[in-house]
Design a protein that fits this description.
The complex is a heterotrimer of chains A (271), B (458) and C (563).
Chain A: E1 2-6, E2 14-15, H1 21-24, H2 29-33, E3 36-39, E4 42-45, H3 46-49, E5 50-54, E6 63-67, E7 73-74, E8 84-88, E9 103-106, E10 122-125, E11 145-151, E12 165-170, E13 174-176, E14 186-189, E15 193-195, E16 205-208, E17 220-230, E18 233-244, E19 252-257
Parallel strand pairs in A: 1-6, 2-7, 6-8, 8-9, 9-10, 10-11, 11-12, 12-14, 13-15, 14-16, 16-19
Antiparallel strand pairs in A: 1-5, 2-3, 3-4, 17-18, 18-19
Chain B: H1 15-23, E1 33-36, E2 39-42, H2 45-58, E3 62-66, H3 72-85, E4 88-91, H4 98-107, E5 108-112, H5 114-120, E6 123-127, H6 131-134, H7 138-141, H8 155-178, E7 203-208, H9 213-217, E8 220-223, H10 229-240, E9 249-250, E10 253-254, H11 255-266, E11 270-275, H12 277-280, H13 286-299, E12 304-309, H14 316-327, E13 333-334, E14 341-342, H15 349-354, E15 360-364, H16 368-371, H17 374-382, E16 385-388, H18 394-398, E17 401-403, E18 414-417, E19 423-426, H19 439-457
Parallel strand pairs in B: 3-4, 3-15, 6-7, 6-11, 7-8, 11-12, 15-16, 16-17
Antiparallel strand pairs in B: 1-2, 1-17, 4-13, 9-10, 13-14, 18-19
Chain C: E1 3-13, E2 18-28, E3 31-33, E4 41-44, E5 49-52, E6 54-56, H1 64-72, H2 74-77, E7 81-82, E8 91-92, H3 99-108, E9 111-119, H4 124-132, E10 138-143, H5 149-156, H6 160-174, E11 180-182, H7 186-190, H8 210-224, E12 230-233, H9 243-251, E13 264-266, E14 274-275, E15 283-284, H10 286-294, E16 299-302, E17 310-315, H11 318-328, E18 332-336, E19 344-349, H12 355-370, E20 377-378, H13 392-400, H14 402-409, H15 414-419, H16 431-446, E21 462-465, H17 478-486, E22 490-493, E23 496-500, E24 503-504, E25 512-518, H18 522-536, E26 554-560
Parallel strand pairs in C: 1-4, 1-5, 6-9, 9-10, 11-12, 12-13, 13-16, 16-20, 25-26
Antiparallel strand pairs in C: 1-2, 2-3, 5-21, 7-8, 14-15, 17-19, 18-19, 21-22, 22-23, 23-24
Helix pairs in contact in C: 5-6, 5-8, 6-8, 6-18, 10-12, 13-14, 13-17
Classes of the chains: A mainly beta (271), B alpha/beta (458), C alpha/beta (563).
């Protein structure tokens, strides 16, 4: 296990893509300390910013533990394919971006773009997360393509933007546009949604088990479902099931809790 | 101009243009200023440049912001300076049409230069935009009241409409006085769209949350519930593609009216949708634009349809274009790691300032302290602030160094880009006062000084 | 006086018929000279190939459309970055590199002159601003004139001489180098969302056909004595069966040929050489096209080679680009320019597994190898439409090595492989012929007399590649050849060493060429255009032409017209 403890509060954005099990694998503390990291526009080394402890029980796959707040450190675990990252505190933007395997667990909050363009592996955030979880990069239509993201707290806007595969579970609330431009995959929201879920989606499944501000007028009601399967688990409904987004010839499925959204019973006349 | 080299008249200019030319010199800052012990003190240009260069070289994460009211020549030096000091280059798009750019990056844009609308458009839609106040020459030069090769001005229609309304008012007043009773014509909000929408002439529709003066001049006004433009645009897309909606009304407008509107849009020869900050800054932001662009793209399956953002600052388009050709990205460009990185929300000035991550700001040709959210402005003031601005503004009042330049487009020449990407020359009309350099020259001097200081440090 | 001597290299200079001779090249003050003094700087080119600097007759690197494409595609740039160094500016690639990166990357491959082939005249300033921020290379640009209202009206009314005078005005106003036509007539039709479908299909609202436009502008080109011919992107680009349109376009100016000189250049011929009725039965029209070219000398072509990668299509062919949006569902930008032209941008990925894309890959190579005279078929990818220009070394390897082609053939879609003519073509271009298609032939077609060769008086634009044909057969060791072409051992530009071992050692800026046509009555044209200006355009007459001093390093080529 490699432990990193921030030496001080970082005021400037820290570009930390070298903090990754793939990069740290088989390196000594000295070698890790020499790895490049950016503090604003100054190129420094990891050792300048963190105290590093490497315990001798090294396995093939590195486990990195960060003790302390690294809310300004970005790209931790980016592109990783193995091992584990444990953050005991808050973590910055782009956590696990494009990761291909391994797992990340955060005890505090995560910034925006966590799990962006992820291909496999798991990310679990005990606190809240920002916007664009599991999303695609600007201009790209290729969002998350596998893996699992679990957020125990709330998430922001555009969760799962351009998602193609995989599962995102938000146990708290989400902002607007959950699943926007979704092409496939599953998004589950236990708390409230601020609305416009599934906008411009072409396929995939979104389950809103809490109150939703609205349902897009470009979704059409199919039926009422007693339960729905999410990631192998059965979630109890009942749910109004909609298909959409019609404006994009979408065949996505939007499940909205019937009990938490009584205003939607006006749709029942179409059934 | 008169004999004292003072501009006394600006012909062909709208009210805003005339004001710019006639009054530019009235309140200008006369010399460079440096803040010493809390007070702004006069300084020489060399002293000011030295101080600016030092601030930038010391900074770990400076922002170089503004750019929209100066020439492309200055903007080009700006990119080089931001790269040299490892800072973030951002322009006013970030608080204005940045969302439009994000929309374009998501879905594209079906557009043209303004002459295409003048020549060919028989259906004009102003959505969340009020050119009567913000772009007064727009309807006259390019849309409603312009004459093109294939379409004529709808000025006579507008006059008939005005006359009709005045007659109605006269009759109403007469009836109230003589017959002592209220004589009301049927409410103007008839069911469906006004008859004029179905003629073959140039027609204008305004879609907005309130009735603006442009709406008064237009053939048809549709009032949309605030914050519901996105739903309306998506619903129209379904109708344009011959689909059906489960609901009776969207954004406060009955679906039947929307179906009529769809028929008009699909039946035109060439339609153009202009949109303003009402769309970029209301709920949904760049997704509103995404939906609007998607709507016009879908309409191209049935007829020719174009869309264009109504840009405000006179050379914000230039700022985006210059940044794009030199760095690949239009705004919010982070050069701190030695190469361009782009991620609005992360690398955009307002967000960086709200998180208090920047330790110095250089502002040129714009006034962020007046326009940014309070949290951002507060944080700008906490760190060294450099302002390159000819006038006194809320930003310059907080600055640590002020460098007043010659006015671009009046005292300095250059190039600027119109909202439709047409590059135009900015002319030098009067000589700047003694000692006043152009933005470009000021930036070049700062860049030179920055390089000297960096060499000395190594 | 800066003197340089490149010693002992194996020189390939087709314009002077030098074929792999070991000789020295002497340079003084940016030009090639007979001899230099002893204290000249020495470049030791022993065991290396020396060629004139590379020339690209058609590559979209600057201007409104290119920049809109850059803006459209941040995702294209994010994976391919250039870090700032002490000598070079930072930037991004990949299919739409930023301007500094464009110049550096061309130079690293030994290229020294690039022609930007599409410029909307109304936005000419934009193209020139970007070109002046493109380092290392000399450049020029072609204004789009095939749908210009003045052209359409004059040609319809038979006023060829008037049109010639107006085009001379336009070349100066926009600092342009050649007359560019894209889908002639189709772009005006696209103003209302329509298109033309053959060269005899009349243009709506104007009553003129593409055939008449092509012939009219061909005559204008001759009257103006322009250094290059008309540069044509044919109608029906990218449509199955369109090889017929390409042939008709070539035939329609046969009678306007002069002596044996070309009067037309058709660009990116690959996109115009499709046989078949639909995408399902698409096949190659390379044989028909090559046969025609082998029997005629009035047309030159460039390849428009496809490379299997993600790239961006951008052309002035608005309707074609709209069609691509429908085919791919990708994001789509359209930009029509009043009175003049149109344009469109759609990201595109060419896949080995696609029968259509694999056939396209094969077509351009077939044409290049079936046409016997290399001076008639030049190497391009129509960057970025067929692929990024950084893939040129790969294409050079395919041209000189059958083995290199077979390696790719073995991995492409089976149906396309079966239909491809490449397995039956053994021809491998020699280094001499390669120098023709990438330099000498390009300069000749462009009429750039001091470029593309290493004779005395030529501009000292030279590429030295670390490959020794006396020891290694580049056809067999094509990987080594490709690497050599990818990182020039030396690039010399205007007599200065600017690249060494594939790295920039001296950043410089080149010149912008444009054609200054001297006509007999320029004032009359000025007055005519001024009168119609407000009617046609939404800018003021005085703001339209580029003025003295705007170009940072102009290099006008003066010609005297016959009007």
């Amino acid at each position: 296990m490699i432990t990193l403890i921030p030496k001080r509060v970082f005021k400037f954005p820290i570009e930390g893509k070298n903090i990754s099990p793939d990069v740290f694998a088989k390196k000594s503390a000295k070698q890790i300390a020499a790895l490049e990291i950016w503090e604003g526009n100054r190129k420094v080394s990891i050792g300048d910013l963190f105290d590093i402890k490497v315990d001798s029980s090294s396995s093939e796959e590195a486990t990195i533990k960060i003790e302390g707040n690294v809310g300004t450190v970005r790209n931790i675990g980016a592109g990783m394919s193995m091992g584990q990252v444990i953050v005991d505190g808050d973590v910055g933007m782009h956590l696990g971006e494009e990761m291909k395997g391994g797992s990340i667990i955060v005890s505090g909050n995560a910034g925006s773009w966590a799990g962006s363009q992820m291909k496999d592996g798991t990310i679990e955030i005990k606190g809240n997360a920002g916007d664009y979880i599991g999303a695609a990069y600007r201009g790209s239509t290729k969002g998350m393509n596998g893996g699992k993201i679990i957020i125990h707290g709330n998430a922001g806007h555009e969760v799962g933007c351009f998602m193609r595969k995989g599962v995102i579970k938000i146990l708290g609330d989400v902002g607007i546009f959950a699943g926007i431009h979704m092409n496939n995959g599953t998004i589950f929201v236990q708390g409230a949604s601020q609305g416009r879920a599934g906008a411009q989606m072409t396929n995939g499944k979104i389950v809103l088990a809490g109150h939703s501000e609205d349902v897009m007028p470009t979704f059409t009601i199919e039926d009422i479902k007693a339960k729905v399967k999410v990631d192998g688990e059965k979630i109890e409904g009942p749910f109004y099931r909609f298909t959409g987004d019609l404006a994009d010839n979408g065949k996505g499925k939007l499940y909205v809790s019937k009990t938490k959204n009584p205003y939607l019973n006006s749709y029942e006349k179409y059934l | 101009m008169d004999d004292n080299n003072k501009i006394i008249e600006a012909r062909n200019a709208c009210a805003m243009g005339a004001a710019k030319f006639l009054n530019y010199s009235t309140h200008r800052t006369k010399t460079p200023l440096i803040r010493k012990n809390g007070e702004l003190v006069e300084a020489t240009i060399d002293e000011a440049i030295e101080k600016v260069a030092q601030i930038l070289v010391d900074a770990h994460y400076p922002i170089l912001y503004g750019w929209s009211n100066t020439s492309c020549e200055a903007q080009r030096v700006g990119v080089e300076l931001a790269e040299e000091v490892g800072g973030v280059l951002d322009n006013t798009s970030t608080v204005c049409h940045g969302p439009s750019i994000l929309g374009v990056q998501s879905v594209g844009l079906s557009s043209a230069t303004l002459g295409q609308m003048r020549h060919r458009a028989d259906l004009i839609i102003y959505w969340a935009s009020n050119p009567w106040d913000a772009h007064p020459r727009h309807p006259e030069r390019y849309t409603m009241f312009s004459d093109g090769r294939f379409e004529k001005s709808s000025w006579t229609n507008y006059l008939s409409k005005l006359r009709g309304e005045m007659s109605k008012k006269k009759i109403q007043r007469a009836s109230n006085l003589v017959l002592k009773k209220d004589f009301c014509f049927a409410p103007c909000q008839e069911e469906g769209l006004p008859y004029s929408m179905y003629t073959k002439k140039r027609r204008t529709i305004v879609v907005d949350v309130r009735k603006t003066r442009t709406a008064d001049a237009a053939d048809c006004f549709l009032q949309v519930e605030p914050g519901k433009d996105y739903e309306l645009l998506q619903a129209l897309r379904v109708l344009v593609n011959d689909g059906e909606l489960d609901v009776d009304e969207v954004a406060g407008i009955p679906v039947e009216t929307l179906e009529d509107l769809t028929d008009v849009m699909v039946g035109c020869k060439l339609g153009i949708l202009f949109f303003g900050l009402g769309l970029t800054m209301s709920k949904g932001k760049h997704r509103n634009i995404d939906a609007a662009i998607s709507l016009t793209r879908d309409l191209n399956n049935r007829t020719k349809f174009l869309i264009m953002p109504m840009r405000g600052h006179y050379n914000v388009t230039g700022a985006d274009i210059v940044s794009t050709w030199q760095t690949g990205y239009p705004f919010a460009v982070d050069l701190s790691n030695g190469y361009p990185r782009y991620n609005p929300g992360e690398t955009s000035a307002v967000d960086i300032l709200c998180r208090d991550e920047a330790d110095a700001t250089l502002v040129i040709a714009s006034d962020p302290v007046a326009h940014f959210p309070r949290a951002a402005s507060k944080n700008i003031a906490k760190h060294p602030l450099i302002a390159i601005d000819p006038e006194v503004t809320p930003t310059t009042m907080l600055a640590d160094v002020i460098l007043p330049p010659a006015f671009a487009g009046i005292e300095a020449e250059g190039t600027a880009y119109r909202m439709d990407h047409v590059p135009l020359p900015l002319k030098k009309v009067v000589e700047p006062p003694e000692g006043f350099l152009s933005d470009k020259e000021i930036l070049q001097r700062i860049l030179q000084k920055v390089r000297e200081l960096k060499r000395d440090m190594n | 006086m800066t003197e340089l001597i490149i010693k002992n290299g194996l020189v390939y200079d087709p314009l002077n018929r030098i074929n792999g001779e070991k000789m020295d090249i002497c340079i003084r003050d940016g030009k090639i000279v007979e001899a230099v003094k002893d204290k000249a700087n020495v470049v030791d080119a022993s065991g290396m190939v020396v060629m004139p600097g590379g020339i690209d007759i058609h590559s979209h690197i600057a201007g409104g459309e290119v920049d809109s494409a850059r803006l459209l595609r941040p995702e294209d740039h994010v994976k391919d970055v250039e870090v700032k160094t002490a000598l070079t500016r930072s930037g991004v690639g990949y299919s739409l590199p930023s301007t500094f990166t464009t110049g550096y990357r061309y130079s690293k491959m030994g290229y020294t002159t690039v022609m930007n082939p599409s410029m909307a005249p109304l936005q000419a300033r934009h193209t020139h601003e970007e070109l002046s921020d493109t380092p290392m290379i000399d450049k020029a640009t072609y204004p789009l004139l095939g749908d210009w209202w003045f052209s359409l009206e004059h040609i319809r009314d038979g006023l060829i001489k008037e049109n010639a005078a107006h085009i001379a005005w336009m070349l100066k106003a926009t600092r342009g180098y050649a007359i560019k036509l894209v889908n002639p007539g189709g772009l005006e039709a696209w103003g209302f969302g329509r298109n033309v479908h053959s060269i005899d299909d009349p243009v709506p609202n104007f009553g003129i056909t593409p055939r008449e436009i092509i012939r009219g502008l061909c005559k204008v080109n001759t009257l103006l004595n322009l250094p290059h011919t008309i540069h044509l992107h044919t109608n029906n680009l990218g449509q199955p069966g369109n090889y017929v349109t390409a042939l008709e376009s070539m035939k329609c100016v046969e009678d306007l040929a002069r002596e044996d000189r070309p009067v037309m250049h058709i660009t990116h011929i690959q996109f115009c050489a499709f046989k078949g009725e639909n995408w399902g039965n698409l096949s190659s029209g390379a044989e028909e096209i090559s046969n025609y070219i082998n029997n005629h000398s009035h047309v030159t072509l460039d390849m428009g080679q496809v490379v299997f990668s993600d790239t961006t299509t951008l052309t002035a062919d608005g309707p074609f680009q709209y069609g691509l949006y429908h085919l791919t569902g990708n994001k789509w930008v359209n930009h029509d320019v009043e009175t003049e032209t149109s344009g469109g941008i759609v990201p595109f990925t060419y896949k080995r597994s696609s029968a259509v894309h694999a056939t396209q890959w094969s077509i351009a190579l077939e044409i290049a190898l079936l046409i016997k005279d290399p001076w008639k078929i030049l190497m391009t990818t129509d960057h970025p439409n067929g692929g990024p220009f950084t893939s040129y070394p790969k294409i050079m390897a395919w041209l000189i090595s059958k083995g290199a082609r077979e390696k790719v053939l073995s991995k492409i879609n089976k149906r396309a492989r079966k239909k491809s003519l490449l397995p039956s073509i053994d021809r491998e271009l020699s280094l001499y012929e390669l120098a023709v298609v990438t330099r000498a032939g390009q300069a000749k077609a462009l009429g750039l007399k001091q470029k593309g060769h290493l004779g005395v008086g030529a501009d000292a634009d030279i590429a030295v590649y670390n490959i020794n044909p006396e020891r290694t057969d580049p056809a067999k060791k094509f990987v080594a050849a490709r690497k050599a072409f990818n990182r020039a051992a030396y690039t010399i530009k205007s007599g200065q060493i600017v690249v060494k071992d594939g790295e920039i050692v001296k950043p410089i800026f080149g010149k912008t060429y444009w054609v200054d046509v001297k006509t007999s009555m320029p004032q009359d044209v000025n007055d005519d255009i001024k009168k119609k200006f407000r009617e046609y355009w939404t800018v003021e007459y005085e703001n339209y032409p580029i003025r003295e001093g705007f170009l940072h390093a102009p290099a006008p080529v003066t010609v005297k017209a016959e009007v």
